Every structure is written in C-alpha cells, then in structure tokens.
Sequence to fold (670 residues):
Amino acid sequence: MSTTETFHFQAEIAQLMSLIVNAVYQNKEIFLRELISNASDALDKIRYQSLTDPSVLDSGKDLRITIVPDSTGKILCIRDTGIGMTKADLINNLGTIAKSGTKAFMERMQETKDASMIVQFGVGFYSAYLVADEVEVISKHNDDEQYIWRSSAGQDFTVTRDTDNEPLGRGTEIRLHLKEDMSEYLEERRIKDTVKKHSEFISYPIHLIVQKEVEKEVPVEESEEAADDEEKDENKAKIEEVEDEEEDGEKKAKTKKVKEMETVDEELNQTKPIWTRNPDSIQKEEYDAFYKSLTNDWEDPLAVKHFSVEGQLEFRSILFTPHRAPFDLFEGKKKRNNIKLYVRRVFIMDNCEDIIPEWLNFVKGIVDSEDLPLNLSREVLQQNKILKVIRKNIIKKCVEMFTEIAEDKDNFNKFYEAFSKNIKLGVHEDSQNRAKLAEFLRYNSTKSVDELTSLKDYVTRMSEKQKYIYYITGESRQAVESSPFLETLKRKGFEVLFLVDPIDEYAVQQLKEYEGKELKSVTKEGLDLEDDEDEKKKFDEQKKELEPLCATIKEVLGEKVEKVIVTDLISESPCVILTGEFGWSANMERIMRAQALRDSGGMTSYMASKRTFGLQPNHPIIRELNDKVAADKNDKTVRDLVNLLYESALLSSGFTLDDPSMFANRIYRM
Fold:
C-alpha cells in the first residue's frame, strides 16, 4: 500500500481556490479551454524532446488529447499523452504560483466576477474548481513512477504513488468530480460546442469517447439467447421483434432489433488550421470551406487575403470579404463577431475591438499570434503594443484585398454596392489610409449619369482651366440632377459629382482634396467658376445695378438670411439659397435635424447654415422685381413676391420650410 503525503497549499492559492469555489462567476466553460491548452503544452514539450532524443516516445508514440465523460460517476476525464509530471512537479507546479502580483489579481477577480480573468496570471489549472468539487491529477513522467495528486480545494492536497489505476504509460489524466449543478459538462453536445468554440484548432487531435445506445439487427436464433439473458438482467438490452417483408417470394430469416451500448470515439477538431500552411499550397475550395465553417455563411467569399508577418513579432492571418452585407451591419448594440483572435491556435476571443476598426466590421477571418500571452484579459489587450501592430497590418492587408477586388469591375460593383458605406466611414475616420480609400470611392455625376465613376476618372476628364473637383450633396439623385446649382456648371462643361448617401456629407468634410485637386461644394458661396475678363466686367456692372434691390430684399427678409447677393452660379432659375463656406450644407442640416437624439440648441444652432440669398441678374422675374422696387419699395406686392421667391428658393436649394402653411396661403393669395 502506497503512503499518502499531505502538503499545504501556498497561502495565495488557498485564497484563490476559496474565491473560485465560493463566488458566482460568469463564463465557467473556460475551464475546458485551459485544461486542453495545458495538455497541448505538455504534448509540445514531449515532441520537442523527441527531436533530439527519439527514445522519449518509446512509452507511447500517439500524441493526442482524450475527453471521457462518465455520467454515472459524474466525473469528467481529460487525458493527454504529453510529457507528464514527476512527484516533484506535482508538488511544485500545482501547489504554488510562481508569480508575483497574485494578490492584485485576486482583487481584480473579486471586482469583475469574470471567470476568464483566471487565466490572466497563469493559473489556468485552478479554473477546474469552477465546475468541480474535487480534482484528481494522475501523471506519469518517463523519469518517475505514476503518482496521483488530489485536492478538494481546501488548505492542503495529497500526493500518493498510484498503484490502483491502470498505468498511463506517459502523460497526465485530470479527473474532475463535478459539482451538482455542473452536470451539463458531461453532455456530449455541450463538450463538443465548448471544444469547437475554444480549442478547434489545437495542433493535436482531441478525441471524445462516449457511450451511445445503438440498434443492431440479429437473427432470431441468436437473439433468443439474448432474450434469455435479458430476463436475468433487464438492464442490458431492450428487444423489439421485427417482422421482415417477403421479397421475391422467398421468406428471409426472421431478425430482431437489439439496443446495445457502444463506445464511440470521435475526433472533435478535424478542421485543420489552414492559416499555418503555405498559401501557394491551398486551393480556392479549401478557403471557401474554411470560410463557411468559420462564419456559417452559405455563400463563398468574394475575396480572401492569407498572409503572415514575421520580424519583431509573428502572426498569421486569413481575412475574407463576404459577398453581401448582413442586414444589421451598423446595428449599434450588435456584438462584433468577425475577427477571431487565437494565440498559438488557442481561441481567445471573437469580439476584440482593438484588432480591427469599426469601418472594417464586415471583414471576417482569424488572427493567430505567436507573441501575445495566452493568459489574456480585456485589460491586458487594451495596453498591448503587439495588438496595435497587428491592427495596422490588418488594415493594410484589407486595403490590398480591396485593390485586388477593384481589378475585376463586376466583382468591385458587387463589393461597392454592399460595403460603400464602410469605405466612406473609413475615409471619415482613418486619416492614415484616407488617400488610399479615396481610390475606391464611386459616384454618379453630370457626365456619368448611369454608371458610377471614380475620382481618378473624374480628374482625367477635367479641362485645363478647371481647378477644383465639384460635388453636390442631396437627398436623392433625382433631387440633385434637377438642382439649380448645376445650371451654370453644366453650361460651362464642368462635371459635378452627385453625393446622395448621408455618410457622404461626413466623408467629404475629411477628404479635402484628391491628387492635389481641392473638393468644392457647388451649394456653398465663394465658388470661383473661372470666368474670363469680359464676363467678370459685365457681372460687376450687374451687381452694382442691383444693389438697391438686394438692400430691399434684406430689409424684407430680416434675420432669415445673412445677406443678399447677385450670383453667377445659376443661369435659368431666378434665385437660390447659398450656405456659408464653413457651415453645414442644406443636406447636412436636414441630416442633423433627423437625428433622434440631436441637441436642438448649442452646436446645432452654431453650425446651422448662414443663409445667403443669391439672385440671378438676367432673369425676367428679378428684372420685374427690380422695376417694382424702383417704383415703390413699400408696395405690399413686393413684400409678398420677395417672401414667395425666398421660400421657393429654400425648397429648390434643398432646405425645408419652417412654416409650410404660410407658404401655401401666400400662393393662394397670388
């Protein structure tokens, strides 16, 4: 009979286990991830040893991890054929935490109540006590006998030479005596889901061995004996008699179906981590299959980028662009579940916001780092410099992937239709990559009505005397196509881009220029249309002539407009409302007013457009109005006509009326 030795836990471990046992934590399933990860490390160690000394594998060449649930005894076994532990290893590794800061760690755990914190300080083994009352560790190292370590999370643990259990050969078996309310971890489905989520890409095969009830058909003669046995032991099998059909006139031998218990051995991680392979050796079909298993998408991806980064840090990644955008792409409270973060093929998290910016939230894929610590928490992630480098590389590779998509026009049209908002959000948010992202922008224009055009193509079509890239923002293409602001520009042959997506307003505020050409809104004052000297001279004369009219109109409209000017931006309409060069455009004002939680004072009133009333000097209505003002500027008809012109100009310029009923009454009076 082997003697049992009792040892006391280091004080911090006793406290730690007391904390785990007595507190209610979220996310208890991480215990399985930690134990499988430890098993994988043990297998790594024996494999490395075997490279220099192949004889270490004489005690067992099969490197694997096995999970065996025992529903009857409420025990979950996790077994590996790794390096194993000697008696000294069991005492030292499982009895002390060789790390400072344990006290601070336990304080954090008490604050957060998050079980995933347990792995931050390298104490993953103790996560077993999240689900188990008692833990047994049976281990056999090549250099020592087989020993068993036991503890019920009290102040001490025992180590005994193991003569009762079957010899392991080499490796470690952890037996978890589960708590009453943790029996879900004995269920086949729960184990499979947890392994798939956290440990699917571990380098070694993970086998699940379960007992299943299966039906077998046996001839009657044999099954009669089985029936006799059943009378003696009712628990062994339940038998149903089955009548077989007659075929081709010949009567088949009668058989009976017998239900028997059978041991099934299933490998859980058959999807191999293809990101560890050379991209040249991987077929498109393999990428498609991997994408579907990763995302549960039914379609193949539109594009894939497989790369590795080596140097100061090392990581591998596969990124996918889907074919279509999900309907809830910009849903605020939606959990982001697109880039899965692995550390040495162990799944860490799927909502790591620091690894990819929001504008790339449609890109799916994995990142597997060799340098990040396996014991990660959200706090560690936020301060980790490695993540910043990974993020920078992912953005760079995504831009490369989009450039490759752009080489095929049909594919790029699909991509742009699905993800144009994301590209524009990137232009707005990502100052470092703004110039590169501008290459992907596409718009309709006055010269490209039916087909989207790029800024690059626009620039190639610009005339020599055109200094700026002109654009107009509005609610819809139909609204901007008929806008009075385009009249003079069309006549002069200048192309104007149609920006009709609400996010365009934000993007264009950040994208000040493209290839040295400044972007100019045609709805704002101060627009230089490169007139020749004769035109300028004639325009200056008209401005002088209409000064009294401008003063009268300003007097009538009062605070509604900041100033009244003569403008050459229109050639067919009598008047327009221009906005200040640095304030909101009419369209931006409409967008801001539509915000459900907008601030109705403060910034809104400060940024709201300073309106300028622009008159077209050659229009008959303006000429008629000028004559009426010259005759009698206090005439009531003048006041009505000015208000009517102003309100009509508001509508045609993209604004909304403050008082529509007053406008209607004025029309009726006319």
Notes: The two ends are 114 Å apart (CA to CA). The first strand starts at residue 4 and ends at 8.
